Task: structure prediction
Amino acid sequence: MLKKSINEALNEQIAMEAYASNYYLAMASWCERKGLEGSAQFFYGQADEEREHMMKIFRYVNEADGHAHAPAINQPDLEFESFNSLFEIALNHEKKVTKSIDRILKLATEANDFRTQNLLQWFVDEQLEEENQMQTILDKLNLIGDSGVGLYMLDAELSKKAEEKEAEEEGE
Result:
């Protein structure tokens, strides 16, 4: 059975993952309205991935004889200052998620909860990937600036990235 403090922390993480999923949906909608279809596709994929993360934790909590809670989700921003701001917000949110995962991992380590540690190790690796992905996109945006051609090319690259990720998931 999960310790109460770990169960509560995991439920907070479930809510954080659900919020991230909704935030990425809002970003996808913004991109679609701006004609950035590839970026919208990328953010739809990110939204799906965050929901999968939420469900992974949700199911684990119940399987570990805890009590998972369906989270109430706050409305994310619907408008964004710029294309760059989407990725700045996403990177900052991913860093916040990383800190939360680290905090829960510390709780699990202190409690000698090896099953939760095992679950969270997967998330530690995943967060490294997520932060690096957002940072790489920001680095590219900083290189190209406000160039219409550069943004068009990056949008196409994000579409390709989303398609590759989707194909990879279908192959699993």
Observations:
- The first helix runs from residue 4 to 33.
- Residues 4-171 form a domain with the Ferritin fold (CATH 1.20.1260.10).
